[in-house]
Description:
By secondary structure, this protein is mainly β. 0% of the residues lie in helices and 47% in strands. The radius of gyration is 12 Å and the shape is globular.
Amino acid sequence: MYLYSITGSLLFKEQHRSSSGKARITKSVQQLGSGVYLLVIELDGYRKSYKVLKQ
């Protein structure tokens, strides 16, 4: 799991393991300022990106 700022700076990177292709990950974003972020999740060669808006 990667979290990038809207300008492309890597804010954090974490590795997680899943069983049977499922995972539930909880991450506090309280320390982040308001704005738009990009969350990237990679699992078993699959990559999905999400735009995250923190108010």
